[in-house]
Amino acid sequence: GAVVSQHPSRVICKSGTSVKIECRSLDFQATTMFWYRQFPKKSLMLMATSNEGSKATYEQGVEKDKFLINHASLTLSTLTVTSAHPEDSSFYICSARDPVGARQETQYFGPGTRLLVL
Amino acid sequence: SQQGEEDPQALSIQEGENATMNCSYKTSINNLQWYRQNSGRGLVHLILIRSNEREKHSGRLRVTLDTSKKSSSLLITASRAADTASYFCATDRRSWGKLQFGAGTQVVVTP
User: Fold this and answer.
1) In this structure, are residues B49 and B32 in contact, taking their beta carbons and an 8 Å threshold?
2) Interchain pair A105, B45: CB under 8 A
3) How far apart are CA B67 and CA A23, in angstroms?
4) In this complex, do B101 and A44 lie within 8 Å of one another by their Cβ atoms?
5) How many Cα atoms within 13 Å fall on the side-chain side of residue A57?
6) Residue among B39, B63, B36, B59 at smallest CA distance from B51
7) Residue B111, preceding bond cis, omega within 30 degrees?
8) Count of CB contacts below 8 A, A vs B?
9) What is the pLDDT of residues B4-57, one digit of tens each?
10) Do the Cβ atoms of B42 and A45 come within 8 Å?
11) Looking at the partner chain, which of B2, B99, B106 has a beta carbon nearest the beta carbon of A107?
12) Is A87 left (phi over 0), alpha (psi -120 to 50) or beta?
């Protein structure tokens, strides 16, 4: 099946710094990727839709200047948490669909990135 | 906003027993998907059921969908210790891929 990777898997940073998380589709091209956030023992919350070659679409309540998304190629989307604060600590997960695969509606999730801001 | 609500929040069963969890949602959907998440890991897609379907099977999994009641259920038969995980339903309203997740059901299967 399709594989999505994320890097890094875990990051600890100081308050005020920026952190970049990469999401890659390894064996398919994804024109659209999605970024989710998950708090401990909670559900996933959709943050934004990342569109290759165009601006990301953010969900209501998500600060676009805080969470910068770049989808520069068909296999890579990046999420940058700018000026991170402790409340940004969370588990960030990306997903993608294979638009030409047999299971086009299926989403493939990355393994997630755990961010801890001190 | 969270589309799906699941119950129970937690389920503890013994190996060999069946596990049933339910998901309710509020708006019309194009499809509903079930995912499994092991602790601290990514999500694994289990099964997708479209709005015009009522039941689907995949191995030991059985999913039903009742669009009139806006609800779905996931049944895991003959559970195994390896089924221990959190299970989430997610709805896709327009098949654009923007999923709204339920709160999840934490399933523990003891040997």
Assistant:
1) yes
2) no
3) 34
4) yes
5) 9
6) B63
7) no
8) 64
9) 678 888 999 999 999 999 999 999 999 999 999 998 888 999 999 999 999 999
10) no
11) B99
12) alpha
